[in-house]
Amino acid sequence: MIRRILAIARIEATITRRNRWLLMATVIMVLFAVALTLAGSAPTGSLGVNMLTVSVASMTTLSVYLAPLLALMMAFDSIAGEAERGGLGLLLSYPVSRAEILLGKFLAHLTALGFAMTIGFGTAGALAAFFGGVDAASLIALLRLVLTSILLGAAFLALGYMLSALAGSATGAAGLSAGLWLVFVVLYDLGLLGAVVFDAGGWFTQQVFPWLMAANPADAFRLWNIAASDGVAMATGLGGAAAALPAWVAPVSLSVWPALGLLLARRFFARLEP
Amino acid sequence: MADSILSIENAGKSRGALRVLDDVSLRAEPGQRIALLGHNGAGKSTLMKAVLGLTTLDDGAITIDGARPGSAHARTVTAYLPEAVAFHKSLTGREQLTLFARLADCPVAQVAGYLNRVGLAGAADRRIGTYSKGMRQRLGLAQVLLGRPKLALLDEPTSGLDPISRHELYAIIDEMADHGTAVVIASHTLTEVEARTDRIAILRDGRLVADDTLANLSLRAGLPTRLRVRAHADAADRIASETGGTRVNGVSVDLLCTPDRKMAELRRLSAMGEAVADIEMHPPRLEDLYRHYSKGDGQ
Q: Domains of chain B, with CATH numbers?
């Protein structure tokens, strides 16, 4: 089983490298991370934290948008596209299970995403550390940012496969992926914000809102990074919601999503007739 | 029969109100080459997908070497060539075939040999995106050869191939059959499968309307043999009136006769002596048979 997963992962990794996905994702990550670090270094003095901490806070906000986007762009074509080209039927005529195909692709895509994240955030972090100094806390915050970004990417890779198996065509999968991104990353927060404003600090805001926020992987990612670092919380001003929840909630939510997504993807993939 | 590689028993499947497969039974023994013929939408591809376990049947059962379609054993012993397969453009032929070898648990060292066998040795390290349609088809064929399958399902294997490649394709199919592989070829290029298959099965609207050797099918259909008689000088009119044939162009007469009347007609013609210059014989071809069975005349 491992042998077949690795065979699929190897070929997917070659494809990711060949069609310049890996290069593009890495360049995008480096450009955005470096730009944010340099542009966002202004409030350093007034908040009394070092430049790397501010940089991590800016990059946390960036990653909420970028990690799901990159992951979905990598994932949306992987099942629907292959089914359309006629390659999926052939692949499934070999003794390889759908779960193995899925895990192989996941492994390759996650590695590519992890590479892009590490290089991108690493470069920006090194830059911030070089110009603005560094301490142990901010280094840990950077490391946490990289790892949680990879987890966030993993969640959206899995959700992307699910949509790809569900859609039946690559264009359909692309549309669904754009919708999913919009809902999880933008509309969900807007909805919650609206509810909080309407509720005006009542029971919903106190009891329900933090849990609803943690249920969304993108927000769980934000909460985890904020709750774990005082400096980052101060720099983003989002500490309130994070403080209302037990510390384990956001990490558990973010870790459960990739597994849940893969299970859902496996389920819809099983129904697909190539 | 225990030694059937492929055994399809009363297979049936509906898509909505449409009966795409209806009571289809078919067997393939080791080393047999079977042509599966039918119009577009007659159920050929559905039947192949059912054998591969990619789609499920509503009725009946299929076993491959004693195993259920889609089971690990069935997939190990079956090779498949989809119609117009598109591999990933950015991979090379060697990389693509290496993946299949790994999945089929076949030594990766053999990949070069299979690429050579289908004439792709020179293009092995070029990207599939640069391949012609015929080269992609050959790559598809190379993956069929991997691991000496017991059953090979080829969906329109000759599409996109030039005549020489087609000849090579059938040489490879013969070689597989000699090694004991049962080969099922879905096709509608009839002239090629005619001489190259042991049995012919014809699907029409999801039903199997014929499954026999070419000779038996011809016999059962009772289609006439056409004799084209070329006359000397102005004897054509006389021949036409004496034999009841029809005049075609200036000097020829066409006669239709049933297989058992053929020799009698020939004797009668040769008795006409100098008036007959030449006789061409056209036994019913697969195309006539196919038309006969697939239009329902055989029922």
A: 6-219 (3.40.50.300), 224-283 (3.30.70)
